[in-house]
Design goal:
Shape: globular
Strand order of the largest sheet: 8-9-14-12-11-15
Largest sheet: 6 strands, antiparallel, barrel
Structural class: alpha+beta
Order of helices and strands: HEEEHHEHEHHEEEHEEEEEEEEEEEEEEE
Helix content: 10-25%
Number of helices: 7
Radius of gyration: 25 Å
Length: 428
């Protein structure tokens, strides 16, 4: 009987493929991969929801009599994971090439794994940039000192982000900027063969309470084309938690920006008032305003989640991630005072600037899941990593063309669990 390798070729190839993927992953190892694992199935559709954690406030009384006080509300919010587009690498070769040239097929296909994971991490990074509610520094100013990195952790601590796995991800040239100040901060050099994750470590074990890592998959955004980047609120935004509990996104009615300006997804907006008009981040447990190292309010910022073209008077609605919540109960507040009509709003950065920020975030800021794809009518193998990443490998052929074909597919789902647990970082 002639040899027949069809039954095991996809297993051999996928085994090499999954090993290569695990060596290349960085960003997708740093976020929550368990919350939505296994949740997507034929009955789930493209969206899966989970409850957001509840928030409460405490009270202080001289006698313990709370009869005159308002009790905490229980308002159920949800975080949603949404299925993204397929990520596919498809390859074909002729029967003659297989007979004469492809003696190490799994080695030849290994670079496909690198392309697959690079596309996954870049698209996930783009999602993170869009939904990260915090920011530090000035867009366009490079991070060139460890104090710029420390500022990211200072902001997170100041607003009450819980300690745990916290990361700052920056591009390789930022790492170069920090090299002169990196004495004693290098990762363990003892291992000769290291994965991308191990090589990504900039400081060991941590710096300023966070783990600094590098990645070449950081995404970019092009800022608003407006030369007049300062406007005002044209109405009082809705600042209730009930309105924003499911999306953690807020609509800001604005005016007085440049005529017909386009505010871009990824842009950072800042409430720039001073004195009685100062709008500051607050600690989300104590509800106290946040002050910087100079004793000034840290102005409230938010990230634009969708492009919007404003009118002839610079009017329109900007939708942002990281809503300004201000209620009398203070239970869910995120800002020290309610934004009102006339408040000044600035879009940070320069017109048409192209920016690639560092990303800083708590592990529970984002979640990623992978849909286990059903098999095609071909020779299929599915591999799943320990944290749920599911890859399908399908081998099939075109008999008329005498060609062999193979494709690798993964279908991810992304979720933002808390925009106040993540931010975009620049230098000062």
């Amino acid at each position: 009987m002639a040899n027949d390798l069809t039954s095991n070729i996809t297993r051999k190839v996928l085994r090499a493929f999954i090993i290569a993927i695990e060596k290349q992953r960085v960003l997708t190892k740093t976020v929550n991969t368990q919350t939505f694992q296994g949740k997507f199935n034929p009955s789930s559709g493209d969206y899966v929801d989970i409850k957001r954690p509840h928030q409460y406030k405490s009270s202080r009384t001289a006698t313990g009599d709370i009869s005159a006080l308002s009790p905490n509300d229980i308002i159920a919010g949800k975080a949603t994971a949404q299925v993204q587009n397929y990520i596919t690498v498809a390859i074909e070769w002729t029967n003659k090439e297989e007979a004469l040239e492809l003696d190490q097929l799994e080695e030849i296909l290994r670079p496909a794994a690198e392309e697959c994971i690079t596309e996954l991490e870049t698209s996930f990074c783009d999602f993170m940039i869009t939904n990260a509610g915090l920011s530090t520094g000035t867009p366009g100013t490079a991070i060139d000192a460890w104090s710029d990195v420390a500022a990211q952790m200072s902001l997170m601590k100041s607003i009450g982000v819980p300690m745990g796995e916290i990361y700052s991800v920056m591009n390789p040239f930022t790492v170069q900027n920090l090299a002169s100040a990196q004495t004693g901060l290098s990762a363990d050099p003892s291992r000769l063969v290291q994965t991308a994750w191990e090589l990504a470590q900039i400081s060991a074990p941590m710096f300023a309470g966070l783990r600094a890592i590098s990645s070449n998959s950081l995404s970019t955004w092009t800022s608003s084309d407006a030369s007049d980047r300062s406007g005002t609120l044209s109405g009082d935004p809705d600042v209730t938690y009930l309105t924003h509990k499911d999306t953690m996104r807020q609509t800001l009615p604005v005016t007085a920006f440049g005529a017909n300006a386009t505010i871009k997804r990824g842009d950072i907006v800042e409430f720039s008032g001073t004195g009685a008009l100062a709008r500051s981040y607050i600690h989300q447990k104590t509800r106290q305003p946040i002050f910087d190292g100079s004793g000034n309010f840290v102005p409230f910022r938010a990230s634009v989640v969708a492009d919007v073209t404003l009118g002839a008077s610079g009017e329109g609605n900007i939708v942002v991630s990281g809503p300004a919540i201000y209620e009398a109960s203070t239970q869910y507040n995120t800002i020290n005072a309610a934004p009102v009509t006339g408040d000044v709003i600035d879009v940070l950065g320069a017109a048409d600037g192209i920016y690639q920020p560092a990303l800083f975030y708590h592990k529970e800021a984002f979640a990623i899941a992978y849909v286990k794809l059903p098999k095609l009518y071909s020779t299929d193998t599915i591999a799943v990593t320990s944290d749920g990443l599911s890859i399908r490998c399908s081998k099939y052929s075109d008999g008329d063309k005498n060609e062999q074909k193979i494709r690798f597919d993964l279908l991810p789902a992304f979720a933002c669990l808390n925009p106040f647990y993540a931010g975009k970082g620049f230098g000062y």
